Amino acid sequence: MNVLVIDGHPNLARSVANSTILAHQTQQTNWSINHVAHFNGDIKVEQDLLLRADLIVVQFPLYWSTYPAVLKKWVDDVFTYGFAFGPDGSRLKDKPVLFSITAGATEDSYSESGFNFLPFDAYQAAYEHPFRAAEVNIVDTIITFEMNANPEEGGDQANTIALAHTHAKSVFEAINQLAETYA
Ligand SMILES: Cc1cc2nc3c(=O)[nH]c(=O)nc-3n(C[C@H](O)[C@H](O)[C@H](O)COP(=O)(O)O)c2cc1C
Question: Structural domain tally of the chain?
Answer without folding.
Answer: 1
